[in-house]
Amino acid sequence: MPELPEVETVRVGLDKWVVGRTIAAVEISHPRSIRRHIAGARDFAQLVTGRTVTGTRRRGKFLWLPLDSGDAIIGHLGMSGQLLVQPMAAPDEKHLHIRFDFTDKGLQLRFVDQRTFGGLAVSIGGAELPKEIAHIAKDPLEESFVDKEFLAALRKKRTAVKRALLDQKLISGVGNIYADEALWRARIRGDRASDEISRPAAQRLLNHVKDVLREAIVEGGTSFDALYVNVNGESGYFDRGLNAYGLEGEPCSRCGTPIKRSAFMNRSSFFCPRCQR
Fold first, then answer.
1. In this model, does residue 131 exceed pLDDT 80?
2. Could you tell me which of 234, 230, 238, 233 has the C-alpha nearest to residue 15?
3. CATH class of 4-133
4. In terms of DSSP H, where are the helices of the chain?
5. How far apart are the first and last CA of the chain?
6. Residues 103, 22: contact at Cβ < 8 Å?
7. Could you tell me if 5 and 222 are in contact, meaning their C-beta atoms sit under 8 angstroms apart?
8. Are 262 and 268 in contact, with CB atoms under 8 Å apart?
9. Angle, to 10 degrees, between the axis of helix 199-218 and the axis of helix 176-186?
10. What is d(CA 113, CA 111) in angstroms, rounded to the nearest whole number?
């Protein structure tokens, strides 16, 4: 599933190609892609047609496009969602579900989703912060994120530290890949109890979370298959710099001990049994 760096990469692309443009028409060919817009396809199209995109925003794995009406188009990429900018004459993608045309008759915005776990909706009055995601915690790269508040909440929770990093009510946007990478850098096992971590160790972990996310954004995110791409259809390259995730049996780049994999929340965790005590 696309995590914060992948969503931020898409947001940056949309900021370049969509902001300031007015939507002329919307074509919705798969109702599942707007299932979170309860009023349906016609209402979705009426709310956005004729409206100008005024910006791009993101919190964690969600992104939204504020409109000049005060509403917002809110989106989640799910497992395989793609927001692509394409020439009007470009052939339709196999799994194209939503198409936006603009009044300038330039590049279209297309929502493509093979597995249809993602989708778009209109958030009424949601230009500043959609109410649909107001319950989600701030992500660590937001300017308003407060380290002290997160560290206090982390050390109060009685759970595994990796589970805490994946708790979207505690901190948003940190998925499985980047949690494993930050824990490896911090030399902390993901199954260690969060309330037993010292404050300096917790701060070190948070710093590594931020570093990993920023570096992944620079690399355009992590692409393990063709399903995650940026708005121009290009893959990210952060997978080339991974130190733990997906490297079971490979020597740890720090100590040479083979990386281990363990089951975790219907997923996998990867760690160095020597470096991460």
1. yes
2. 230
3. alpha beta
4. 4-17, 41-48, 147-156, 161-165, 176-186, 199-218
5. 28
6. yes
7. yes
8. yes
9. 130
10. 7
- Tell me the per-residue pLDDT of 103-112, one tens digit each, with 9 for 90 and over: 999 999 999 9
What is the amino acid identity at position 48?
V
In sequence order, what are the beta bridge partners of 271?
A: 260
Catalytic (active-site) positions = 2-3, 61, 267
In eight-state DSSP terms, residue 106 is -
User: Around Cβ 70, how many Cβ atoms within 10 Å?
Assistant: 14
Closest Cα partner for 10 from 53, 58, 68?
58
The domain 147-271 having CATH identifier 1.25.40.10: the answer here is no
Q: Which two tokens stand for residue 66?
A: 């504020």
pLDDT tens digits for 21-63?
Answer: 999 999 999 999 999 999 999 999 999 999 999 999 999 889 9
Which amino acid is present at 143? Answer: E
Give me the residue spans of the domains in the chain. 4-133, 147-271
Look at the block and give the residue holding tokens 């925003």.
Answer: 57
Q: Which residues contact 159 (CB under 8 A, 6 or more apart)?
A: 167, 193, 194
